[in-house]
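[job 4471] stage=fold_predict status=RUNNING
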Amino acid sequence: MTDHIDEDLEQYDLCQTVNLTIEIDEPTIVIEESFEQITVSGSLPRVGPSKNLEEALALARIGEDVLVRDLPDDMRKELCTHLNINPFGTSMRNWETVAAKMGASSDEILGLKSSTNPTGELLSQKKSEKVNVLLEAIAKSGRVDTLVSMRKFAMRRIQKQAKVAPIIGNNFSTASTVPCTSKYDDYTTVALLIHYETSKDERKAFKKFKLNFNLQLPPEIFVEDLLEIDASENFYAQLLEAFQKASHVIVCLTHSYCQLISSIDSPKDDSQKAVKNVHNLMDTEFGNNNCKNKRFRPLIMEESISRNLPLGWASSTTLYRWPNDFHKLIDRVKFNPMISQTM
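[job 4471] inference complete, writing structure tokens
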């Protein structure tokens, strides 16, 4: 791994088109200093299990009444990750081929090329189309990996339909129902990112970290950004669910974060409320576990922070440093789900 993180990387978002070169043998990410190109080895987008297109399409299909506008946010993000790439031969076609298969004109495709998130724009334009039409276009584009990924949405819909079906058994005098499902239930591991930045340099560093973090993790690990949780409905319930479901809580320590946590002032906005509430939950869990840390991963974003850590669990556990310890953190998340030992 190279410790240098290219300054040009800041311009890329998860759902933004980047140039990718996929190599099979080396499972590392290399960011070349002299080029505006990210060379990714063994990272997303990855080809899924060996399935023919017909089988993958059949598994991904859902009810005919579901429209593109009904896709949940996490599946939209996953589609963007899979399709917002430069085409790679005939086996890794991107959003342009999918758009053409869905009937988009050459002018419409040309217009999408100017977008920083062409897949997201395409989904917005085709919001009234049936999801199965989108799936067929993906199949015609040869993207088996994307179809396999979309199967999770089909399974989730089946589960949601099942929760309203009555369950009658010998021990039930009345009908019962299956408990409600969560968006996290489809994933083996959930990584919750806790962060707070106010300066340009802090935002730049976090943006680089988050992009690389998502690129290096397999699809079965769901990354939830605390500050991207929808605050419009049941805000605190959603925060609590994300915290409880997280196998790993990655806390990106910046000067702004430490100042916010140490401040006695009342939070001024939803971002501050979210960060302070979750940090308090971490302190409470740490105390309840006899000061043993099981799932919190503090990441030092600025070296000077290590001399001014917040009181509590953060100063009593293993510290990771960005970018030097990036791959140690990745290995911890990928290969070590939440376990009972102190880390």
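[job 4471] summary: The chain has two domains: 53-162, 189-335.
[job 4471] exit 0
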